[in-house]
Structure formats: C-alpha cells, structure tokens
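Can anyone check this?
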Amino acid sequence: MHALSLITILDHLICYSDDESIYKLSQCSKDCHESIHQIKRRQLFKLIKDGNILHNQHLRSIENIESVHNEETLKLLEMIKRKEDELKIILPSYLKEFILICGDLDCRFTPHLNGYYSSHPCYSFIPFQEWEFLKTHFLKIPSRTEIEKKFKAHQRDSLVIVGYDPITHCCLLLESNSGLLYEFGRNELTKFGSLFEWYTKLNSNKTFKHSINNNHHLNQLQHPVTTVESAIKLLKFKSGDYSQIYKYLPIDFKKNEQLIMEVMKSGYVEKYIPFKYKDNADFMLQYIKQNLDAFQICSARLRYDIDFVKRVFEINPKIIYQNNSREWNFKVKPFIDV
C-alpha cells in the first residue's frame, strides 16, 4: 500500500480510536508505526501552532523536523538521548516531539503572568538541559514535602522538574513512569496529563488566551535595542535593574559573550543566561565571587561535583546553607570541610 494512502486511512481510524487501539495499530507493522508517529507529530504541531500565544515563540518547520539530515534535528535528538541516559528514563514521545518542534528552549523568557504561570506550555518549560529529578533539585521549594505527599512512594523518585517559577514556586512535574504532567502550585496538584490533552483543553479556552494576550507583562523593552553594544550600554545605564532588561533581549543577544560577562560582573543572578555558561566551572566560580546565590543556577553536574563545591566553599563557606535538597545534603555536604 502506498504510504500516503496508509497515512490517510490511519488518520481517519485514529479519530475514532482510543489510546490502546492506536497502540495496537502501531504494532501491526513498521509502516503502521511510522505512519501513526507522523500523524501524531503533525497533530501536536497543529495544536502547538494554534495555541502559540507568544508571537516570538520559535517553532521549527515540519519539513525540518522530519528531515533525517537536518542539523538542528540531529543535534536535538542527540540531546534527548543524553538526557535520557543521564536520568536513566525514557521520555514520553510527545515530549520528544515538543522539543523537536520548539527547540531546546535555552535562554527563553517564561514570564510570570498574574497566576497564569505554568498554565500554558509556551511559558511552563525550563530549558531542556536543566530538567532534573525533584529529589536533586537545588532551587528552594518550600513545598517540597507537600509535593511528595501528593504522590505514592514509588512515584516520588520518578518526579522530574521540567518547569519552575522562583516567584510563585510553581513546579511543572513529569511523572516519568507514567509520562504524565502535573503542576504543583499554591499547595495544590493539577493533573495536565499528556501535552495533547493540555493543548486541546487550552486551545478551546478563549477567555484564557484573551487574558494572556492582553497582559502587560508580555511587552518587551520600552525602547527595543538593535545592537549588542546598545544592549550593553542599557545594562550599564540601568545599574543593577538587569531583571527588567536581559530577559527581554532577543535570544541572539542573550548568547553574546560580552553581554553575558557584563551581567556576571553585575552580580545579578540571571537565570536566563545560556546553559553552557551555567555548566562552565570557571565562569560560574567568577559569578559566585560576585554573588553566592549564583550557585543556585549552576548546572546539576556542577552542583553535585564535590571538587567544584569545595572551590565554592573556599570563596564563601556559607555555601553549605544555600540548598534545600536532602540529596545534596547526603551526597555532597559531608565531603566539605566545615
């Protein structure tokens, strides 16, 4: 059977099938499996495109996503494999597709929107490289114990933080055993299910989309900058008010080394700097000399690197109090000379 006609037939069947039936269809043959995978990808792409409430949200073209030779696609697939090996889990297929469609989200600004944070995928996910287990997460989460109470014992160790807002302490959690997404905020747990379910529900909520689109926090800089030099001048002119500047800059500007060095020298802890700097020991040590709180944005690899933490301790012994992770207290703290 021609591949195109198979996709057309399966597309109609899927509309009237439950998840179990779709899974059985996908196991019939390699062609069925690949065709259903392509249908699901295109369905998710349409949902994301229809629900794209950020005008500057970067969506990769479906042609590039499906090209086995596309450089960015190959790079993202390699990143996904590394993250799965690091966490020793298999990410659900819809999250892999989300990453292929939206990219790794490095440097993306996810604004706090009057209680709407983590209520839309465009805002909710932190950069893919920063996903880690709740038990090892270092950012201060006052309700960590409350989160754990909401899940059964065998689920707790499988919880991965894929989104976090330090202002509201909202967390977007992936229960990696089931592949389901949950939001924890204001001491309440909300089950989103899969990304398909989440987008489908939100795309039908016109009131929500209107509220987001008319929120003044989405406005970028009052005086948009056109060059890296003008951005640096603006940073210096604002003398410390970096939280209102850097995060709104174009992504290409945010990745400029000279501009990043200016942010680091300021001592302002900017969580939207590129991940490669958060994972660079020499850079982060310089940052920590300016402000000990910069340790909180270090990559998980550095935070659990005993030699690195010892060097931080030499800079400022108060590092032993800069965490809220039982895992860190057990694996790292005993090896630091107090």
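Reply from J.R.: I decoded it. Residues 126 and 135 are 17 Å apart (CA to CA).
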